[in-house]
Structures
1.
Amino acid sequence: MSEIARAAGLQQSSLYYWFARKELILQAVVAVNRCPLEFIERIGAGSGSPALKLYRLIRFDTAQLCESPCDVLEVSALAMRQPEAFPEYWHDRQRLHDWVVSLVRAGMDEGIFVAVDPDLTALGLLSLDEGMQHWMRHSAEHRPGGTTSFGYPAFGGDQAAEYTASTMLRALLRRPEELAELQAEAAGFDDRPSGGYARVIR
């Protein structure tokens, strides 16, 4: 708390006036920033196939997670240990999961996607974008001269977003060769708020 107060230019007592403990600060961040859910509401009523909507959502969610000030896996671990302190986090996560499930089911019903378990697929899709964010955030530790012997090339949020969306949709499409057409269609949408991906957490 002292480090947070110092970074914010406050006395520690002033910070405690607003937040009794650091978990409440994180809870406030999670409650305020609901970018994927707002994105869903924006594209949900629009035209486009379930595949296009799912591609855009995964691309957007991955990119905005990569720009987030927090590691979503660390937030999830904390929320798991203190579920009573993070009810909105789990409520929002359920809404996001359910929407992905509905898109997967719609894609199967329309014959666009192969037959899969929608719930397991939604879990896999969201896990991949969270994992990409985690490894991007810690990439400095895995570059030459870093703190570990495991290394990999650096990558950016936009690169991670396109890779994650393309990989997952290719696996779902009944006709994988249609991915290029889907990518071209998605490229026509600027899903980045104010010309840049939102620096927020789900």
2.
Amino acid sequence: MLKSMTGFGRAAAETDGMLWTIEIASVNSRFLDVQARFPRSLAGAEFAIRKRVGERISRGKISVTVTWEALPGESGGARLNHSLAESYIKQIHELKSRHKLAGEITIDLVSGLPEIFSNPLDSGDKSGREEELLKALDQALAQLDLARSTEGKSLGADMVARVRAIQTQLSAMESEAAEYAQNLEARIKERVAKLFAEVAIDPQRLAQEAAMLAERADITEETVRLGVHLTEFAKVLAEGGQVGRRLNFLLQEMVRETNTIGSKTGELAVIQRVVLVKEELEKIREQAQNLE
């Protein structure tokens, strides 16, 4: 199965009165690059998140974003520890009474006491929270994988159609090139014979030189190699998997052979087909860069 490197996945988890949302977006990259953004209190889970992503994805720039909000009926942000505040106030009263101290117990005094307020992210069962987050991460990765597979299938179908179009052009190119080579050799003989009409020329030498010039314009070797690369390209697409780098290599070889064909031939019809093939190869290259 072919997979694109572009996709998006999203999932949510509920723990400790909070709703956690995980979003994963991926775009093209030569290598695997995982970037994670989440609350500082989850810094300990970064390694586990990166490891889980790396187990499912081999290539692409991956952005993992974790956000949270309080569930309805739950207090968001800082939480007041009522029992601790009451304990502080009670003990301050006892201290004031026992030592006959002056002064009032004010909100400024109480609110500044240690651990009166706590961050909800710092409380609760952190190990359980991370476990739930990783479950949500798996769900988001599954969505991402589905999106990448769907787009990969579409990209593959498009490239297969373009490969077939190039093969059609190649078949016509080979036929036209063979005829062109025969005509070229005959034209060379005719021109040389006219040029040296009054000079004795060895017919065998003339034939050898004409054949050599015609051979230099022969594109049979290049068209055969281009055909082999096209067949291999279609085979790799059919096999699927992580094919991006392999396809890019084959495309480089196909572009090289096509450029050589264009530089060797003087036949207008062949040159026009070379232009069409290069256009299709460029479109395939753009598509192949999106594959994992």
3.
Amino acid sequence: MYTKAAVFTAVVASAAAFQPALRAGVAPKVSAATCTMQAENQGMKQAIAGLVAVPLLFGAQAANAITSQQVRSLTYEEIKGTGLANRCTELAGSNGEITINSANKFKIADLCLEPKSFQIEQEVNAKRKGGVSKEFVDTKLMTRATYTLAGVEGPLTNEGGLKFQEKDGIDYAATTVQLPGGERVPFMFTVKELVAKSTDSAIKPGTEFSGTFRVPSYRSGLFLDPKGRGGTTGYDMAQALPGMEADGAEGQAELAGETNKVFQVTDGSLEFAVNKVDQTTGEWSGVFVSEQLSDTDMGSKAPKKVLIKGIISGRVDTFNGNEDY
């Protein structure tokens, strides 16, 4: 779990350092002529004028916020291929606070988490100290712009403090990053079964939530490796059994992990801080810091710690009777 200082460090960083991910996951370096051509080909130059400027999508101004009103003003064709579908909305300003009481049943709807930074814990040689230490290093995103969690929702209650329970929505996204040495690390970015609590009784600027969630296996039990081995299924083939190691120790364990596939579920932790609130619409936005484990290749590899920072937004609403929770 991360401290308040860590969360608010992410708040400051989100305003300047974070850039939105587009088609290939990073802001591309293209010329102004190329930007204009792409915008015209997609028929969005005229539609977005006055709403979301083209430099906002392709240029140095990409860190500017996208409001929910701007997104709702665009059609599917105007959003298609621009990367906006992978972005979370942010409030332009703050107005009041959202009080949660026992008079109504409340929920958080349209919860959105957009990662801006992926870091992997790795052993790093400390030249000055002459030893090896573990540090979170920056990575290169290899996944296309499909890694944002959106439409997540769940009940929000006041039990001497706010409590949010994740119940539904697009709450997982398969993601892969690449370490500086070239190793690629896949993981399931998720907030499944998140239970986040706050000591505040209202959502306002400065409100902080923290909690834990469950991280499912990157691959399901139906996945088959190149030798046809899976967790719940597989097939026999006419080949000899792999030779066992002579020592009967480490080699045996490695072969057992490759042969006996398991569906592993691990734990993750999340903290997020609210920095803007709109009392009229119930919308709020802020930043989050999440820590979880990477893929284990169904039990055959040791997982790595993944540190994710980004922006978060949501909307407080009342129950409408269609909820399944």
4.
Amino acid sequence: MKPNMKTAIATTILAGALILNMVSNANAQPPKSCSNATLRGDYGATLTGTVNNLPFAALNLVNGDGNGNITGEGTIVYNGTVIPSSFTATYTVNPDCSGSFSSSSGTTENIVIRRDGSEVQIIVTGLALGPATVTGLAKRLGPPNAVTQ
């Protein structure tokens, strides 16, 4: 029995798909889970939005110790007034890379961390200055899990 052209093409496509699937599965790694250790090292963080319907922005240098503690300092600009800031905070990171943050100033935030810890998305959920709509992004400043003393 002589195979027809449609059968030959279908077989070739199927074989190619199977090979591509095997190659991609061979290179696939299981998803990495997160923990407090994911946030370790120095980060540059920016936050922007409004507080009490007035413009708010912050630029901070933050250090996570990988054990749930943060120290930071930076500059806040609130309705045009420049305010130096420094703070300490605690954080919790869940296995799904979500988490929360609570600072000594009374600020609370929800966070989502990139699995390698290189980036943190931030939304402020509570701010001592008043009602806020503030979001931000923190990026690691050095190699993964770098710690400066």
